[in-house]
Amino acid sequence: MKRLAGLLAATGVLAAASACRSSHPEHLSTNDRRVRIAAYSGHLYSVSEVRRAFAALGLELHRGPAPAPGLVSLVNNARLGPQRIPSPRVVTVFVVTRRQAAESMQFKRGRNTQVTRYANITVVSKPDVLYQVRSAVSALRWGTASSLGKPGRRLIVLGSSIDGIGLGDSRANVEKAFGVGRSIRRGLVSYFGGHLIVNYWFHDGLYKQVEYLETRWSGYRTRSGVHVGSSRRELRPLYVTCAKGNCFLLAGPGPDPVGTGFTMRHGKVVDIIIGSFG
After folding, report:
1. For the segment 6-53, what is each residue's pLDDT rounded down to a tens digit?
2. DSSP letters along the chain, please?
3. pLDDT at position 146 over 80
């Protein structure tokens, strides 16, 4: 689907532009020269949960030096998906592991870095992997890492399914469960009265399993409530990356990474696509 490829191309320039100038409170400005890590009173994500969420996006994290009691550092300086990454480190994740962690800890960061915060984790990363960092944080927040999200009626599971039809499902099983649908053109089928479009094409080839899902109907919603018609502000909890009127969220590493794309018009979501960004 050309729109997915265009969406990824549009966001390729985003890293240097600080990911659509996000106004997330978790995201510090480039003028902030110090990062503060304080004790956290909410839900504590474990080190293993954090590592799984980042591994799903191709960021292997390894334990680094312990900066303070109750604080674990995880670093990525060896691999980013299939590509070898030389030093310096491109990602450092600090995880608060107990309530009695240092009340206030600060460290300097370089000019070419971004900071993302959520719950008990703080991530310092290079701009060119910021979209993967945000996707990992989103997966951690919404439980979509390691296929934890379950399909359901009128539910959008990010990077996975819409209304019970998921990526990779065989066409035979889809038709057995939901009927043959209405053919729009070869490999492109409409289901549920046109609310959901299922595409069996990928890279100009016809396959026997679901390759893309698309909806322009406002009745489908993510677990956070995002739907067609949602505002840019309502997308913020997903930690999406945006550029040139479109936003996306990865669900896996490249090449041809699986993700969810949100087409924006006049500040509103008009189209949601799940598939490979290739």
Report:
1. 544 443 322 323 333 333 333 333 334 466 666 666 788 999 999 999
2. -HHHHHHHHHHTTTGGGHHHH---TTSPPTT--EEEE----S----HHHHHHHHHTTTB--EE----BTTEEEEEE-SEETTEE-PSSPSEEEEEE-STTS-S-EEEE--TT-EEEEETTEEEEE-GGGHHHHHHHHHHHHHT-GGG-----TTEEETTTEETTEETT-BHHHHHHHH-S-EEEETTEEEEGGGTEEEE-EETTEE-SB--EEEE--TT-EETT---TT-BHHHHGGGT-EEETTEEEEESS-SSS-EEEEEEEETTEEEEEEEEE--
3. no
